[in-house]
Every structure is written in C-alpha cells, then in structure tokens.
Design brief:
The structure is a single chain. By secondary structure, the protein is α/β, with parallel strands linked by helices. The protein is built from twelve helices and seven strands. Strands 1, 2, 3, 4, 5, 6 and 7 form a seven-stranded mixed beta sheet that branches. Helix 2 packs parallel to helix 3.
C-alpha cells in the first residue's frame, strides 16, 4: 500500500506564497544592512537652516539599529564638520547603539569626512572611502572679523556695557586683545586634545602617521588616508557589502520621518502665511550669512 502524496498546492506551497508577500528584509536568511546617510554641516546654523545634530539623527539611527535580521549598520558620511559637541554626541550615540545591539558599524565616506565629519566617521568599526574622498582635518578652528577701523571711518561710535571682565571678549568692533586671543587658543587646545583622544581610542594601532602630522589639521585624499590609518580601505557601499554579505544583501535606506503626518503636524493656521512671509524677510540677513558660512566650510575642501 502506497502512502498518499501531498496534493499540489499543499501547506508548503501556501507558506511559500505567503512568504512572497513579506518584505524581503523580513524574510529569514536575508542579509540586511540598513543604511543611514549623515550629510551636511554639523550643528545649528539658523532656525530655518538646521545643520546635523543628535536631535535630528537619533531616531533614524535607532530605527536602523533596531531593524530585524540586520547583520551590520552602514553609515554614509558626507560632512565638512561643524560643532565639536554635536559631532561627539552623534559619535557616542552610534557607539552606544552598536554595543547594545551587538552590530558592527561600517562607514562609507563620500566627498568629505573632515573635522567633525571625521569624528563621526570614527564611530565606525571600519571606514571605507573613495580614492577622491577627503578625510582628516583633525583640529579646531575659529575666527571673527575686526571692524574697529571701519566704524571710525564712517563715524560710528561703539558703546558696549558689560558685567564681567571677559564678557566682551573678541568683540569685532573693538581692538584685538592679546590676552583674549591667548584664552581662546587655550580653549581650542583643550577641545583639540579631546578630538585627538577620540581618534586614538577609535583607530588605535591602525594609525600609521606621526602625531604632529595626523593631528595638525591637515587633510588627505583616499589613498593617503588609508596609508595613514585614517581609513581602512578604498571601497564603495554596494561592492563592499555584496563582497561581504553576498550578492543578495539588502540595503534599505533609513530616512528621517516625513510625509503626510509630518505635513499635518506642521500645518499652520489661517493667516500664518503672511506672518511667515514677514519672518522670512526679517531673517534674510541671517540666512545670507548662514549660506555664505556654509559655502565657505565646504569650499575649504574644494566643494
């Protein structure tokens, strides 16, 4: 007596068909590497032109590290730097999530990861870059202008009232005070030491260059960055992930929240448009200065 065979279209076939309805990244056995893009100048620029900050990227990072079946998290970085505080906070959050979820972090540098952008890149267990990418600029910079001679020529008198001997330090309409400059440089050295310690802790023995070169504020193209140990290899995201996790690796991009809900939450009342127009006119000088400053930061690296 022969055993009955399972009819065509049995349970196995039904399950297989149902699995086709499940998003690929949720199927068992699929290698998933969520991708997060971290781009732009770091830190507040103006209210209407926000830069990259921990508050702005934290939810996106958390969603990426929480994704099911993730084998790693890929960060695509394109930033010329900015606020050292926001840079370090983003770095720390990435490392915290990597430790909690026990996932490796792979960083892919696009045009530039310099200054604070490189600080964030150091959150990666491995850093990959293009031969034409720019990395480094491990230093601290600050600047202002001096207008004291100009206001004399146009007949303007500076009147400034403070409580606190250092409150008007480096005022651009007053002559430069050598003591103030010395204090600012001391502050910069302190922040620079924090940056250096972070790079040393993250890159460890992979750093190959002399400290007075690596931490001079200089920056390098991809191949030189690899030879100095600032990056691990030349490689792009697609090729590197396919070589490591197979040709069918899935790389869903995890983007900041947007869409209908964001629009509803941001909806303004009747009459708000006119007010917004007035606010927009009032903010034009700030926006222009912000755009020029942002352009200057990118231009430093040839972009």
């Amino acid at each position: 007596m022969t055993e009955p065979t399972e009819p065509r279209g049995g349970i196995a076939v039904v399950i297989d068909r149902l699995m086709q309805l499940v998003p690929a990244r949720l199927r068992r056995g699929a290698a998933v590497v969520p991708v997060v893009r971290l781009s732009g100048v770091i830190g507040a620029v103006t209210p209407l032109r926000p830069g990259m900050s921990l508050a702005g990227v934290s939810r996106t990072l958390e969603r990426a590290f929480a994704m099911k079946h993730a084998k790693a998290v890929a960060l695509v970085i394109n930033s010329p730097g900015g606020s050292p505080v926001q840079s370090r906070q983003i770095y720390l959050r990435i490392r915290q999530l990597a430790a909690e979820k026990k996932l490796p972090v792979l960083v892919f540098v696009e045009d530039v990861a310099a200054s604070g952008g490189y600080m964030i890149a150091c959150a990666g267990d491995e850093i990959f870059c293009d031969p034409s990418s720019i990395l480094g600029s491990i230093g601290v910079v600050g600047g202002t202008f001096g207008f004291q001679e100009l206001i004399k020529k146009i007949g303007v008198e500076r009147r400034l009232y403070t409580a606190g001997a250092r409150k008007a330090m480096l005022d651009p309409f007053l002559p430069e005070n050598p003591d103030d400059v010395a204090r600012v440089k001391a502050l910069q050295r302190e922040i620079h030491a924090i940056f250096i310690a972070l790079v040393k802790q993250s890159r460890g023995s992979r750093l190959k260059g002399a400290e007075d070169v690596l931490f001079s504020g200089e920056y390098w193209a991809g191949e030189s960055s690899v030879s100095l140990g600032l990056a691990d290899a030349i490689g792009d995201l697609r090729s590197t992930l396919r070589a490591r996790y197979g040709d069918k690796v899935l790389t869903p991009v995890v983007a900041p929240p947007s869409g209908m809900l964001s629009g509803l939450l941001g909806r303004k009342s009747a009459g708000a448009g006119a007010l917004a127009s007035l606010e927009g006119v009032a903010s034009l000088p700030d926006e222009l200065i912000s755009a020029l400053e942002t352009r200057a930061i990118w231009a430093k690296f040839g972009f």
